[in-house]
Amino acid sequence: MTQQLLRGVTSLRFNQDQSCFCCAMETGVRIYNVEPLMEKGHLDHEQVGSMGLVEMLHRSNLLALVGGGSSPKFSEISVLIWDDAREGKDSKEKLVLEFTFTKPVLSVRMRHDKIVIVLKNRIYVYSFPDNPRKLFEFDTRDNPKGPCDLCPSLEKQLLVFPGHKCGSLQLVPGTVVASASQKGTLIRLFDTQSKEKLVELRRGTDPATLYCDKGTVYIFALKDTRLNRRSALARVGKVGPMIGQYVDSQWSLASFTVPAESACICAFGRNTSKNVNSVIAICVDGTFHKYVFTPDGNFNREAFDVYLDICDDDDF
Predict the structure, then answer these.
(1) Which residue, among 296, 303, 298, 295, has the nearest Cα to 269 in the 3D structure?
(2) Which of 1, 124, 148, 263 would suit a FRET pair with 210, their CA atoms being 20 to 30 Å apart?
(3) How confident is the model over 299-315, as pLDDT tens digits?
(4) What is the DSSP letter of 94?
(5) CB distance 105 to 53 below 8 Å
Protein backbone atom coordinates (compact mmCIF):
# COMPACT_ATOMS: atom_id res chain seq x y z
CA MET A 1 0.00 0.00 0.00
CA THR A 2 1.37 3.39 -0.93
CA GLN A 3 0.49 6.99 -0.14
CA GLN A 4 2.66 10.11 -0.11
CA LEU A 5 2.24 11.89 3.16
CA LEU A 6 3.06 14.22 5.94
CA ARG A 7 6.08 12.69 7.57
CA GLY A 8 7.60 11.20 4.42
CA VAL A 9 6.12 7.69 4.58
CA THR A 10 5.60 6.38 1.04
CA SER A 11 4.56 2.78 1.80
CA LEU A 12 3.94 0.35 4.67
CA ARG A 13 4.05 -3.45 4.63
CA PHE A 14 3.82 -6.21 7.22
CA ASN A 15 6.12 -9.19 6.84
CA GLN A 16 4.58 -12.59 6.10
CA ASP A 17 3.56 -13.45 9.68
CA GLN A 18 2.76 -9.84 10.74
CA SER A 19 5.43 -9.91 13.45
CA CYS A 20 7.28 -6.99 11.82
CA PHE A 21 6.50 -4.13 9.48
CA CYS A 22 8.66 -2.12 7.11
CA CYS A 23 8.33 1.53 6.26
CA ALA A 24 9.56 3.07 2.98
CA MET A 25 10.27 6.76 3.49
CA GLU A 26 11.68 9.89 1.93
CA THR A 27 14.61 9.36 4.31
CA GLY A 28 15.21 5.65 3.60
CA VAL A 29 13.83 2.50 5.24
CA ARG A 30 12.81 1.58 8.78
CA ILE A 31 12.05 -1.90 10.13
CA TYR A 32 9.95 -2.37 13.28
CA ASN A 33 9.00 -5.24 15.53
CA VAL A 34 5.23 -5.23 16.20
CA GLU A 35 4.93 -6.67 19.72
CA PRO A 36 6.64 -5.15 21.56
CA LEU A 37 6.86 -2.13 19.27
CA MET A 38 10.48 -1.21 18.66
CA GLU A 39 12.73 -0.30 15.78
CA LYS A 40 14.78 -3.27 14.58
CA GLY A 41 16.92 -1.27 12.19
CA HIS A 42 17.05 1.26 9.40
CA LEU A 43 18.71 2.14 6.11
CA ASP A 44 19.39 5.85 5.88
CA HIS A 45 19.06 8.22 2.94
CA GLU A 46 22.79 8.15 2.22
CA GLN A 47 22.61 4.37 1.74
CA VAL A 48 19.42 3.97 -0.30
CA GLY A 49 17.98 7.42 -1.07
CA SER A 50 14.23 7.99 -0.88
CA MET A 51 12.24 4.78 -1.24
CA GLY A 52 8.95 3.95 -2.97
CA LEU A 53 8.47 0.33 -1.87
CA VAL A 54 10.08 -2.09 0.55
CA GLU A 55 9.19 -5.74 1.20
CA MET A 56 10.57 -8.04 3.92
CA LEU A 57 11.21 -11.78 3.68
CA HIS A 58 9.90 -12.99 7.04
CA ARG A 59 12.50 -11.91 9.65
CA SER A 60 15.50 -12.63 7.43
CA ASN A 61 18.30 -10.34 6.29
CA LEU A 62 16.75 -9.92 2.80
CA LEU A 63 14.76 -6.86 1.71
CA ALA A 64 13.29 -5.98 -1.69
CA LEU A 65 13.74 -2.28 -2.49
CA VAL A 66 12.19 -0.07 -5.17
CA GLY A 67 13.23 3.56 -5.52
CA GLY A 68 10.69 6.36 -5.29
CA GLY A 69 9.89 9.59 -3.53
CA SER A 70 11.54 12.94 -4.21
CA SER A 71 15.24 11.97 -4.21
CA PRO A 72 15.61 8.31 -5.22
CA LYS A 73 18.97 6.62 -5.48
CA PHE A 74 17.49 3.59 -7.25
CA SER A 75 15.14 3.38 -10.24
CA GLU A 76 11.39 2.83 -9.97
CA ILE A 77 11.64 0.22 -12.76
CA SER A 78 13.99 -2.04 -10.78
CA VAL A 79 13.64 -4.33 -7.78
CA LEU A 80 16.88 -4.56 -5.79
CA ILE A 81 17.52 -7.27 -3.20
CA TRP A 82 19.43 -5.98 -0.18
CA ASP A 83 21.30 -8.57 1.91
CA ASP A 84 22.25 -7.02 5.23
CA ALA A 85 24.27 -10.08 6.24
CA ARG A 86 26.94 -9.26 3.66
CA GLU A 87 29.91 -7.43 5.08
CA GLY A 88 30.89 -4.00 3.84
CA LYS A 89 29.76 -0.43 4.42
CA ASP A 90 29.25 0.39 0.73
CA SER A 91 25.61 -0.11 -0.26
CA LYS A 92 26.69 -1.70 -3.55
CA GLU A 93 28.23 -4.59 -1.62
CA LYS A 94 24.88 -5.39 -0.02
CA LEU A 95 22.85 -5.34 -3.26
CA VAL A 96 22.92 -8.98 -4.35
CA LEU A 97 20.18 -9.20 -7.00
CA GLU A 98 18.47 -6.87 -9.45
CA PHE A 99 15.31 -7.33 -11.52
CA THR A 100 14.88 -4.56 -14.11
CA PHE A 101 11.85 -3.88 -16.31
CA THR A 102 10.68 -1.26 -18.80
CA LYS A 103 7.85 0.11 -16.64
CA PRO A 104 7.53 1.13 -12.96
CA VAL A 105 7.24 -1.61 -10.36
CA LEU A 106 3.97 -1.24 -8.41
CA SER A 107 4.33 -3.98 -5.80
CA VAL A 108 6.56 -6.86 -4.73
CA ARG A 109 5.72 -10.04 -2.82
CA MET A 110 8.23 -12.56 -1.48
CA ARG A 111 8.36 -15.91 0.20
CA HIS A 112 11.17 -18.42 0.80
CA ASP A 113 11.08 -19.87 -2.74
CA LYS A 114 9.55 -17.16 -4.96
CA ILE A 115 9.42 -13.43 -5.67
CA VAL A 116 6.46 -11.82 -7.46
CA ILE A 117 6.83 -8.45 -9.18
CA VAL A 118 3.79 -6.48 -10.32
CA LEU A 119 3.72 -3.95 -13.17
CA LYS A 120 0.68 -2.09 -14.49
CA ASN A 121 -0.28 -4.77 -17.03
CA ARG A 122 1.94 -7.72 -16.19
CA ILE A 123 3.04 -9.92 -13.30
CA TYR A 124 6.34 -11.81 -13.17
CA VAL A 125 7.11 -14.78 -10.92
CA TYR A 126 10.73 -15.83 -10.30
CA SER A 127 12.39 -18.57 -8.29
CA PHE A 128 14.13 -17.03 -5.30
CA PRO A 129 16.63 -16.33 -3.84
CA ASP A 130 19.25 -18.77 -5.23
CA ASN A 131 19.88 -18.54 -8.98
CA PRO A 132 16.58 -16.80 -9.75
CA ARG A 133 14.89 -17.66 -13.02
CA LYS A 134 11.57 -16.60 -14.48
CA LEU A 135 8.89 -19.21 -13.79
CA PHE A 136 5.72 -17.50 -15.02
CA GLU A 137 4.53 -14.31 -16.66
CA PHE A 138 0.88 -13.18 -16.59
CA ASP A 139 -0.83 -10.40 -18.50
CA THR A 140 -3.46 -8.47 -16.53
CA ARG A 141 -5.89 -5.66 -17.18
CA ASP A 142 -4.77 -2.20 -16.07
CA ASN A 143 -3.67 -2.62 -12.46
CA PRO A 144 -2.41 0.86 -11.49
CA LYS A 145 -2.32 0.21 -7.72
CA GLY A 146 -0.69 -3.21 -8.07
CA PRO A 147 -2.88 -5.33 -5.75
CA CYS A 148 -1.57 -8.89 -5.58
CA ASP A 149 -0.99 -11.46 -2.88
CA LEU A 150 1.11 -14.57 -2.52
CA CYS A 151 0.43 -17.36 -0.04
CA PRO A 152 3.48 -17.39 2.31
CA SER A 153 3.22 -21.14 3.04
CA LEU A 154 5.43 -23.41 0.94
CA GLU A 155 2.67 -26.01 1.15
CA LYS A 156 0.31 -23.83 -0.91
CA GLN A 157 1.02 -22.61 -4.45
CA LEU A 158 -1.46 -19.73 -4.55
CA LEU A 159 -1.12 -16.34 -6.22
CA VAL A 160 -4.06 -13.92 -6.45
CA PHE A 161 -4.30 -10.88 -8.74
CA PRO A 162 -6.96 -9.00 -10.76
CA GLY A 163 -8.40 -11.00 -13.66
CA HIS A 164 -8.79 -9.76 -17.24
CA LYS A 165 -12.47 -8.97 -16.68
CA CYS A 166 -13.26 -6.06 -14.36
CA GLY A 167 -14.67 -7.45 -11.12
CA SER A 168 -12.89 -10.80 -11.43
CA LEU A 169 -9.92 -12.37 -9.65
CA GLN A 170 -7.39 -14.74 -11.18
CA LEU A 171 -6.14 -17.56 -8.97
CA VAL A 172 -2.91 -19.33 -9.80
CA PRO A 173 -2.79 -22.62 -7.92
CA GLY A 174 -4.94 -20.78 0.64
CA THR A 175 -8.27 -21.70 0.84
CA VAL A 176 -10.09 -18.35 0.95
CA VAL A 177 -9.69 -15.12 -1.00
CA ALA A 178 -11.33 -11.76 -0.27
CA SER A 179 -12.34 -9.16 -2.84
CA ALA A 180 -13.68 -5.62 -2.44
CA SER A 181 -16.25 -3.71 -4.46
CA GLN A 182 -15.17 -0.64 -6.41
CA LYS A 183 -16.84 1.67 -3.88
CA GLY A 184 -15.23 -0.20 -1.01
CA THR A 185 -18.54 -0.85 0.74
CA LEU A 186 -18.68 -4.63 0.20
CA ILE A 187 -16.17 -7.40 0.93
CA ARG A 188 -16.83 -10.86 -0.50
CA LEU A 189 -15.04 -14.06 0.51
CA PHE A 190 -14.68 -16.99 -1.89
CA ASP A 191 -13.45 -20.57 -1.59
CA THR A 192 -10.38 -20.84 -3.83
CA GLN A 193 -11.13 -24.46 -4.75
CA SER A 194 -14.86 -24.34 -5.54
CA LYS A 195 -14.96 -20.57 -6.42
CA GLU A 196 -18.15 -20.45 -4.30
CA LYS A 197 -18.98 -17.23 -2.48
CA LEU A 198 -18.80 -17.98 1.22
CA VAL A 199 -20.01 -14.74 2.75
CA GLU A 200 -20.69 -11.10 1.90
CA LEU A 201 -19.66 -8.45 4.41
CA ARG A 202 -20.78 -4.83 4.36
CA ARG A 203 -18.52 -2.05 5.65
CA GLY A 204 -21.00 0.81 5.26
CA THR A 205 -22.29 3.21 2.60
CA ASP A 206 -19.50 5.82 2.49
CA PRO A 207 -17.14 5.01 -0.43
CA ALA A 208 -13.53 4.27 0.55
CA THR A 209 -10.36 2.77 -0.85
CA LEU A 210 -9.99 -0.46 1.10
CA TYR A 211 -6.86 0.34 3.01
CA CYS A 212 -8.91 1.79 5.86
CA ASP A 213 -8.50 5.31 4.43
CA LYS A 214 -11.69 6.52 6.14
CA GLY A 215 -10.23 6.28 9.62
CA THR A 216 -12.24 3.23 10.71
CA VAL A 217 -11.09 -0.38 11.17
CA TYR A 218 -13.85 -3.01 10.90
CA ILE A 219 -13.70 -6.50 12.44
CA PHE A 220 -15.79 -9.35 11.02
CA ALA A 221 -16.24 -12.91 12.29
CA LEU A 222 -15.60 -15.52 9.58
CA LYS A 223 -15.81 -18.85 11.41
CA ASP A 224 -18.93 -17.99 13.42
CA THR A 225 -20.75 -15.45 11.25
CA ARG A 226 -23.61 -15.29 13.76
CA LEU A 227 -21.44 -12.84 15.69
CA ASN A 228 -21.71 -10.27 12.88
CA ARG A 229 -24.49 -7.71 12.92
CA ARG A 230 -27.32 -8.00 10.37
CA SER A 231 -30.05 -5.76 9.00
CA ALA A 232 -33.30 -5.58 10.96
CA LEU A 233 -35.02 -6.26 7.61
CA ALA A 234 -33.66 -9.82 7.77
CA ARG A 235 -36.54 -10.59 10.15
CA VAL A 236 -39.15 -9.29 7.70
CA GLY A 237 -40.27 -12.04 5.20
CA LYS A 238 -39.54 -11.87 1.49
CA VAL A 239 -38.15 -8.70 -0.09
CA GLY A 240 -37.19 -7.69 -3.62
CA PRO A 241 -33.93 -8.95 -5.19
CA MET A 242 -32.03 -5.66 -4.79
CA ILE A 243 -33.09 -5.20 -1.17
CA GLY A 244 -32.52 -8.90 -0.60
CA GLN A 245 -28.81 -8.55 -1.35
CA TYR A 246 -28.58 -5.78 1.24
CA VAL A 247 -30.55 -7.77 3.82
CA ASP A 248 -28.32 -10.83 3.34
CA SER A 249 -25.16 -8.80 4.01
CA GLN A 250 -23.39 -8.81 7.35
CA TRP A 251 -21.93 -5.86 9.26
CA SER A 252 -18.86 -5.84 11.49
CA LEU A 253 -19.14 -7.15 15.04
CA ALA A 254 -16.75 -4.40 16.19
CA SER A 255 -14.99 -1.33 14.81
CA PHE A 256 -12.63 1.36 16.02
CA THR A 257 -11.25 4.61 14.66
CA VAL A 258 -7.75 5.75 13.76
CA PRO A 259 -6.72 9.26 12.58
CA ALA A 260 -9.31 10.42 10.03
CA GLU A 261 -8.43 9.93 6.36
CA SER A 262 -5.11 8.30 7.28
CA ALA A 263 -4.57 5.05 5.38
CA CYS A 264 -3.37 2.13 7.48
CA ILE A 265 -2.46 -1.53 7.35
CA CYS A 266 -4.02 -3.92 9.87
CA ALA A 267 -3.29 -7.34 11.34
CA PHE A 268 -4.47 -9.44 14.24
CA GLY A 269 -2.14 -9.37 17.23
CA ARG A 270 -1.39 -11.91 19.92
CA ASN A 271 -4.44 -12.96 21.92
CA THR A 272 -4.30 -11.85 25.53
CA SER A 273 -6.79 -14.52 26.68
CA LYS A 274 -9.22 -17.08 25.28
CA ASN A 275 -12.06 -14.61 24.74
CA VAL A 276 -10.04 -11.46 24.08
CA ASN A 277 -8.49 -10.77 20.68
CA SER A 278 -6.39 -7.87 19.45
CA VAL A 279 -5.95 -5.87 16.25
CA ILE A 280 -2.94 -3.79 15.26
CA ALA A 281 -3.28 -0.76 12.95
CA ILE A 282 -0.19 0.94 11.51
CA CYS A 283 -0.99 4.32 9.93
CA VAL A 284 0.90 6.33 7.33
CA ASP A 285 0.81 9.36 9.64
CA GLY A 286 3.31 7.53 11.86
CA THR A 287 0.91 6.26 14.53
CA PHE A 288 0.59 2.75 15.99
CA HIS A 289 -2.70 1.52 17.48
CA LYS A 290 -3.56 -1.69 19.32
CA TYR A 291 -7.16 -2.49 20.24
CA VAL A 292 -8.53 -5.50 22.09
CA PHE A 293 -12.04 -6.79 21.48
CA THR A 294 -14.37 -9.57 22.62
CA PRO A 295 -16.76 -11.71 20.54
CA ASP A 296 -19.72 -9.63 21.76
CA GLY A 297 -18.26 -6.51 20.10
CA ASN A 298 -16.79 -4.68 23.09
CA PHE A 299 -13.42 -3.08 22.40
CA ASN A 300 -10.80 -0.92 24.13
CA ARG A 301 -7.57 0.72 23.05
CA GLU A 302 -4.67 -1.04 24.74
CA ALA A 303 -1.71 0.78 23.19
CA PHE A 304 -0.86 3.90 21.20
CA ASP A 305 2.50 5.15 20.00
CA VAL A 306 4.17 7.22 17.29
CA TYR A 307 6.48 4.71 15.65
CA LEU A 308 8.37 7.38 13.68
CA ASP A 309 9.57 8.80 17.01
CA ILE A 310 11.06 5.44 18.02
CA CYS A 311 14.68 5.31 16.89
CA ASP A 312 17.49 2.80 17.14
CA ASP A 313 21.00 4.19 16.90
CA ASP A 314 22.29 1.06 15.16
CA ASP A 315 22.04 0.49 11.43
CA PHE A 316 19.87 -2.37 10.18
Answers:
(1) 303
(2) 124
(3) 899 999 999 999 764 44
(4) H
(5) yes
